[in-house]
């Protein structure tokens, strides 16, 4: 799905997606895109865990249980910051989420 990414023991810096169990097919389609944010519809194997590493900040999830595996400091979309890694535990075969691509803490609305 994406190339590059984690490993090497340092903080993650690139976008990458993978599953547990390994090798699950994951697809995503943009549902709603506006300046500074995007929402996604995702399909993945039922019962799998999807790992999503990106330079963004996920702020809402539906049809999956999400957990922050690695929290970037100060936040994922900050210039020069490492990427966040979020896990999504999939119960059906589809879920979705929205993420900020350029979060501005001085204007969080």
In short:
With 109 residues, the chain is mainly beta. The protein is built from no helices and eight strands. It has strands at residues 16-20, 27-34, 37-43, 49-54, 57-62, 64-70, 84-90, 94-100.
Characteristic key phrases:
four-stranded antiparallel β-sheet; mainly beta; disordered N terminus; globular
Describe the structure.
The chain is mainly beta. The protein has strands at 16-20, 27-34, 37-43, 49-54, 57-62, 64-70, 84-90, 94-100. 0% of the residues lie in helices and 49% in strands. The strands form two sheets. A four-stranded antiparallel sheet has the order 1-4-7-6, with no helix packed on it. A four-stranded antiparallel sheet has the order 2-3-8-5, with no helix packed on it. Strand 2 and strand 3 form a beta hairpin. The protein starts with 15 loop residues before the first strand and ends in a 9-residue tail after the last strand.
In percent, how helical is the residue content?
under 10%
Largest beta sheet: strand ordering = 1-4-7-6
* Helix-strand topology string: EEEEEEEE
Assess the beta-strand content as a share of residues: over 45%
Main sheet?
4 strands, antiparallel
User: What class would the helix/strand composition place it in?
Assistant: mainly beta
Figure out the total of helices. 0
Task: Name the poorly predicted regions.
Answer: 1-9
Rg measurement, Å: 13 Å
What general form does the structure show?
A: globular
Kindly, what is the distance between the CA atoms of the first and last residues, rounded to a whole number of angstroms? 31 Å
Average of the residue pLDDT scores: 87
What's the total number of strands? 8
């Amino acid at each position: 799905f994406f190339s590059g990414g984690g490993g090497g023991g340092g903080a993650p810096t690139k976008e990458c997606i993978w599953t547990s169990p390994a090798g699950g097919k994951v697809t995503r389609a943009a549902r709603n895109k506006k300046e500074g944010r995007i929402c996604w519809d995702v399909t993945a194997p039922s019962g799998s865990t999807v790992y999503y590493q990106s330079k963004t900040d996920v702020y809402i999830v539906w049809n999956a249980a999400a957990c922050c595996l690695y929290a970037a400091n100060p936040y994922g979309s900050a210039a020069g910051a490492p990427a966040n890694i979020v896990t999504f535990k999939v119960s059906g075969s589809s879920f979705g989420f929205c993420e900020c691509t350029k979060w501005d803490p001085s204007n969080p609305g």
